[in-house]
Amino acid sequence: MNYFTAYFAYWEAGFLADPCGKRVLIHAVAGGVGTAAVEIGKILGLETYGTSSSDDKLDRVKQFGLQHGINYTEQDYEEAVRELTRGEGVDAVFEMLGGEHTAKSIRCLRDFGKVVQYGTATGKQPQLDLRALYAKAASVQGLWLTYLSGKQSLMQPAWQQLLAWIVDGKLHPVIGHVLPAAQAAEGYELLRARKNFGKVVLKIM
C-alpha cells in the first residue's frame, strides 16, 4: 500500500514521465508512505523536501535519500520551503493532513505545480486557497488507492516497475513496529502521538 500510494502520487504529479529538475515536498515524511516516496524520489533523481515532528526522524529519513528535512515544530514549513527554494517553491506536494495544510501546501508550489491529496490525518476538511491556485496556474488532485486498485491497466505496470526496483535492491520497506493484533490500540496510539517511524504492522496469529 505504501509504495503503490507513493508511486501513483508521482504518476499523478507527472514525475514518472518527466522527473528532470523537479522538486517534491512530502508531508509526514517519516511515515510509511513518506519513506516510500523518498526512496522512489531518489530513484527518479528528484530534489526531495520532507516535514516531520523531530530532528531524529528527519535524520533517519535522510539515510533513505531525503535531501531537505523540515521540523515543523521548530519552523513553519511554508516559510522553510520559501527559503530553501529561494522563493521558487516546489513542483508537487504529497499531502495527507487536510485542514489548513492543503492551503499551505498550495502556497508552497511554484508555477504549474500540483498538490496530490491522499488523506486527511488531521480529521479536518481540506481548505483550498483558490487565489493561490489562480496565481500559479496550480492544481489539487485526489488520490485514493482503493479506487485505483480496481483498475488493472494501472496496477499491473505499477507493480512491474515496483518489482523491478525491488529486484534491483532499490526499495527497502521501513517497518518501525510489529505488534500482535491484540495490541492494535497501542499501535494506533503510536500513530496518533506521532511516535512511529515507517509502518506500524499488526501481526495476525
Measure the end-to-end span. 21 Å
Oligomer: single chain
Shape: globular
* Helical coverage, percent range: 40-55%
Order the strands across the largest sheet as they lie in space.
3-2-1-4-5-6
Approximately what portion of the residues adopt beta-strand conformation?
A: 15-25%
Largest sheet: 6 strands, parallel
* Beta-strand segment tally: 8
Mean pLDDT reading:
93
Rg, Cα atoms, Å: 16 Å
Low-confidence stretches: none
What pattern of helices and strands is seen along the backbone? Answer: HEHEHEHEHEHEHHEHE
What structural category do the secondary elements indicate?
A: alpha/beta
Describe, in short, the structure shown.
It is built from nine helices and eight strands. It has about 200 residues and is α/β, with parallel strands linked by helices. It is globular.
Task: Compile the SSE list and pairings.
Blueprint: H1 2-13, E1 23-26, H2 32-44, E2 47-52, H3 55-62, E3 68-71, H4 77-84, E4 90-95, H5 100-107, E5 109-117, H6 130-136, E6 139-142, H7 145-148, H8 152-167, E7 175-180, H9 184-192, E8 199-203
Parallel strand pairs: 1-2, 1-4, 2-3, 4-5, 5-6, 7-8
Helix pairs in contact: 1-2, 1-8
Structure description:
The chain is α/β, with parallel strands linked by helices and 205 residues long. It is 41% helix and 21% strand. The chain is built from nine helices and eight strands. It has a six-stranded parallel beta sheet, with helices on both faces. The protein has a two-stranded parallel sheet with strand order 7-8. 38% of the residues are buried.
